[in-house]
Amino acid sequence: MKKNIVLIFTLLVSSTGLYAQRNVTNANDSNTPLHLLRPDYPINYGIPKTEEIKGSLDKIHAYLNEVTPAEFINSKTGETVTDLSKLDEYTALKKGDFRIVSYEWGVTYGAMLLASQATGDGRFKEYSEKRLQFIANAAPFFKKTTEEHADWGTKGPLKGLLTPHALDDCGAMCAAMIKTSREGSKSNFRPLIDSHIDYILNKEHRLKDGTLARNRPQPNSLWLDDMFMGIPALAQMGKLTGDKKYYDEAARQVLSFSKKMFNKDKNVYMHGWIEGMTEHPQFHWARANGWAILTKVELLEVLPENHPARPEILALLKAHVKGLTGYQSGSGFWHQLLDREDSYLETSATAIYTFAIARAINRGWIDGLAYAPMALLGWNAVATKITEKGQVDGTCVGTGMGFDPAFYYHRPISPFAAHGYGPVILAGAEVINLLKSKKFEINDSSVQLLQK
What we know:
The protein is mainly alpha-helical. 52% of the residues lie in helices and 7% in strands. It has 15 helices and 11 strands. The protein has helices at 2-16, 50-67, 103-119, 122-148, 159-162, 167-182, 190-203, 225-241, 244-261, 286-302, 310-325, 347-362, 368-383, 405-409, 421-437; strands spanning 72-74, 80-81, 91-93, 221-223, 262-263, 268-269, 272-274, 334-335, 345-346, 440-443, 446-449. It has a 3-stranded antiparallel β-sheet, with no helix packed on it. Strands 4-7 form a two-stranded antiparallel ribbon. Strands 5-6 form a two-stranded antiparallel ribbon. The longest helix has 27 residues, at 122-148.
């Protein structure tokens, strides 16, 4: 009996198609304007309202504000630690749902700043300022103790920030601190910023040609993720200091990664590249492509108009947008592996693409007539993953580099995957900016950007 059911289902799928249109109608063009019939969309379709987007962002803010405490405790006794001159090896950050010193939270801090600008609501900026100030104030105490107690090993809640051993430890957090400084913060982030920039420029492993690299999972591995983990911090440092060398290095890195990893036929990036491989298996992982396009957007945002590399980076952005939008699903989401439609639909990448496309339209870098409806569709998809509690569903957990499809297909998803929150806030904030600057209409049931 079970085999018969499976056979019948297989025949139905093969004959009708798994994604066949569901709302069959008996109307005909002699009695009904068929172009006005309501489609059966799997998500909300149309022009989102700014107040609804703001409501979604408020939910996320309320949740994160509650579950990311800025407080130290003694992990042995559970008591709150307020006098950091007396910290010891048991001093730890009070546990919440997420770590407030991770690269994912570097993204979130920057996103909160943008949300404050887009909505006029100071609570978002206050979220970032409070936690980053807390970290900056505590850093000198932990630095002193770390230097005096090498025997503590890996203990210490700020160890990655104080003594980075990977771009993940410092790049995104550094970029967030610089952005917060540029927003007028009085906190002294400069010691951490200088330390992080020094790590990116002088201490991170590189290929012989200078491209930022790792020695895992193989010697001299390029991770597409590392475009974001290192380059935006350099770009922001250029903006903070006015020193051209930071812009030059940021641009050089983008072009070097892209030369090795950008597929010009598909206009998307592979996730991993290993020096010495005779073949480079291409797995076009969605979130890594998100980090890559986010990097180009972040760089173009501050790169001087007359910088010699700007035209080439802008051309890369346009090609990447074209490639990505070709893989957007009919539900508005993108797949975990972009070009494999049987891989699952993933939230964080969809949010990053939505932000990047909306920002590129708002800055005049790409054609809004062509791409704005896709950005709105992306937001409408992402919005379905924001729960009443303010959690973000459907985000792939942290992911290394693999060279087989099963590795990517079966990565778990979780509302506690920190990678989803910053991108969703970025997407909502930039779509609000898009709706403020552009006018849209529904024409023959489709979303259209109005030409001025």
